[in-house]
Records
---
Amino acid sequence: MSLADFKYADTIHRCFRCGYCKFPVNWKDVNNCPPYARFRMESYSCGGRLWLTRAWLNDQIKWTEHLAEILYSCTTCKNCVIKCPLRFNVDIVNMVIAARGEMVESGRLPQAVKKFLENIELYGNPYGESRAKRGEWANRMGVEKYHGQEYLLYVGCTGSYDTRAQKAARALAEIMMRAGVSFGVLGPEETCDGNEVYKLGESGLFEVLAENNIQKYKNTGAQKIVTFSPHAYNAMKNYYHEYGGSFEVFHYTQFLHGLIENGKINNLRCPNMKITFHDPCFLGRWNEEYEAPRAILRAVEGVEFTEMGKNKESALCCGGGGGNFQIDLLGGSENSPARRRAREAYETGANVLAVACPKCLVMLNDAVESEELANRLEVLDISEIVIKGLNI
Ligand code: SF4
Ligand code: SF4
């Protein structure tokens, strides 16, 4: 493939590397592009990545594993899309995804990316865990299998297999049961939603996942889907319609907010919680939902809410987007985005860092431990805060 054949050949050169996109919208820091924050080198910034991509497509530099890692270190957090002042900004992440697509086509990928995609193809999840284990998170809870109830709860790979995220998935299911919601899960028949596969540039595998999932949901009669993860929410809401999937999709914070407004959940109380909230990129910047999680926290008596300096569209990504939760090209340093974000949360004086994404939950939980803040700052999913509020 030459640059001339690249979908964005006419626009990729428009980045003039001003560096604005390293900042958040509110200018509060110069480290809001996660790979740049981690490595502090221009080649890992958005502009550097675009220039390297262009040079590679133009045959001015050769493919190396390091070049591929620079391309795959983008977490697709969309900070650059929102911050870049030029009109081509809407396509910045699309350019990165398209360039990754060229790498997928050529078969030259970082080993971790190859493994990630292989696992999803073989097992339906990036962990390489058996499909049969997928529903075990709900063992002995009494969660029904989906058979036409009003809502299908889609838990996703992280909530199904990661032991920390499983706890939050159980909290969500328990809340829905206690609120009398008619819902079920697919258990071992659930498969990866494909959001990260799409972002990693494997459009063929994404198409297979989307088509199979849509067919499965249609066969069961599902029309309303509640997703535990904002990544799945993004894929199902924004991409599945291209493959004939026209479902009503809710992120679970939107759904819980509705239950609170309808009086199905009430009398929430969590004394002595000073909470700050980390906006997940795929709920916030990708889908502009900033209010629902905050409205839930406001409904809990005893909660004192405090914002981080970088919040909503200015939030720093935890570093787990675009497949980096598994391929982990940004970890292993005090400059990792998750550790930076943990420190930002701690500086607010909060004793709880609330999240609304299983990937953010695991990333920030680990980061708080690495920062030795675990006894002063607890990382809790909003579902876990609501269940604590119901239990008091
Ligand atoms: S993407 Fe936009 S903001 Fe970022 S360096 Fe290029 S021109 Fe500047
Ligand atoms: S999407 Fe996020 S990680 Fe990727 S280049 Fe833009 S700011 Fe950096």
---
Amino acid sequence: MFEREIKELYEKISASVCSPDCCKCCKDMIQFSPSEEKNMGGYEWKGKCRHLKNGRCSIYEKRPFVCRLYGTSVLLKCEKCTPERFLSEEDTFALVREYNKFRNMEIGELKRTIKS
Ligand code: SF4
Ligand code: SF4
């Protein structure tokens, strides 16, 4: 698993402050890597993410890459999120490329484990 490498990518994303009355992005299905799924204690979607409780993310510190990126990149701006800074388009693409590399390697590792 590439948990450490993925967590290092989190550090490149600005902290953001969501408006307390907003949970818009938590109603979309999200993508995550196998280690992120484990870290957040599984994932289930029934019209919204099961980790959304009382209008807030109940696993905020353990939320996956995509949840961190939303609202903090110029490409994924949302009305009610106030990040410390926005990631540029170039930095966003670079970060997503890195993330996808580790995510795909984790998925490959998982498939090999299941087959053996
Ligand atoms: S993990 Fe948290 S931030 Fe991400 S979709 Fe679920 S509730 Fe929202
Ligand atoms: S990231 Fe934006 S859309 Fe998602 S909950 Fe926060 S304020 Fe709402």
